[in-house]
Automatic annotation (TrEMBL):
It comes from the Bacteria. PANTHER family: FI06469P, METHYLTRANSFERASE DOMAIN-CONTAINING PROTEIN. This is Methyltransferase domain-containing protein. It comes from Nitrosomonas marina. Keywords: Membrane, Methyltransferase, S-adenosyl-L-methionine, Transferase, Transmembrane, Transmembrane helix. The keyword Phosphoprotein does not apply. GO terms for biological process: methylation. GO terms for molecular function: protein-lysine N-methyltransferase activity. SUPFAM superfamilies: S-adenosyl-L-methionine-dependent methyltransferases (SSF53335). The chain crosses the membrane at residues 12-32, 38-56, 68-97.
Length: 272
């Protein structure tokens, strides 16, 4: 799977490296320092792991995970909690979120305001094709396919459970909407007039390369919330929803694969 992981250091490997380094220091300290309880050693290891992860410039939310990892294992072993619960929890998370360790894109859904703004933006009568890269449970596609019968809507999703839900919903609803289990990096974007993505900051640079390589001149790329570093959009639509979403819109033209610092030509705000 070709993913954003290539653009930055893998946070999971950094976390594992911090834990192992801290564990090695702790084992050395156990041999030379005054006796502590197992839990106290685990807390000390957690503090060291968090500190190492901080030095490695991991995202701030990794710090409490590093801090609590070993103390939590020691505590649950002491309390006799069955490891099956953790296995079960892991499987449920894997089904819902897929390989977020690789993609660095979790599941969160576009708001109703985004659906309405996109619906208003899409062609009213002309035929068009639309893809949602990482379509989650397909809610956005389902709603758009109902309001824009002149469009063909396609979604690709890598996480098993959201994809399954999306597929079931698309089978029961409009014939102009289909959802596929797969990797967005393997999609041929030249087949679509409008490409929509609501991902995370991690893959945006690499996604832009794919867009410039594959999308046809005149086609449209819309990113919810996440900008492409160094490439100003042609227009923005600011929305009044609970996350303060902004739709960034790029019209693809032959010279678009260059980095630009120009300001967007048009900013539309629905805040008032
Ligand atoms: C933030 S959610 C957006 C869901 C939906 N597009 C929406 O707007 O409501 C991003 C989704 O992209 C999926 N995703 C991330 N990387 C992917 C990849 N390489 N291939 C397919 N789906 C991916 C994630 O599993 C997640 O469900």
């Amino acid at each position: 799977m070709q993913t954003a992981i290539k653009t930055r250091r893998n946070p999971v490997l950094m976390a594992a490296w911090s834990q192992l380094t801290a564990l090695t220091f702790t084992v050395v300290l156990v041999a030379v320092s005054p006796p502590l309880t197992v839990f106290e050693w685990a807390v000390l290891q957690g503090i060291m792991a968090a500190f190492i992860n901080y030095i490695l410039k991991a995202d701030v939310w990794w710090i409490p995970i590093q801090l609590c990892f070993l103390p939590a294992i020691v505590a649950t072993l002491a309390l006799g909690v069955s490891p099956l619960w953790f296995g079960l929890g892991f499987c449920v998370l894997l089904l819902i979120y897929g390989r977020t360790d690789q993609t660095q894109v979790p599941l969160y859904l576009s708001s109703q305001a985004v659906t309405q703004a996109l619906s208003a933006y899409l062609p009213q009568t002309k035929r068009f094709s639309f893809i949602d890269l990482g379509c989650g449970c397909g809610g956005l596609l389902g709603s758009l396919s109902k309001t824009r019968a002149n469009g063909t809507f396609h979604g690709v999703e890598a996480a098993p459970l959201p994809c399954f839900i999306g597929k079931v919903k698309s089978l029961r609803s409009q014939s102009n909407c289909s959802i596929q289990w797969g990797d967005l990096w393997k999609q041929d974007l030249s087949r679509y007039d409008i490409v929509y993505a609501y991902l995370s900051p991690a893959p945006m640079k690499m996604l832009w390369k794919k867009i410039c390589h594959e999308m046809r001149p005149g086609s449209i790329f819309i990113s919810n919330t996440f900008v492409i570093p160094g490439v100003a959009p042609d227009s923005c639509v600011e929305l009044k929803d609970f996350t303060g979403s902004t739709l960034y819109i790029w019209r693809i033209n032959p010279g678009h694969n260059t980095v630009s610092d120009k300001s967007p030509d048009l900013v539309i705000s629905s805040k008032n």
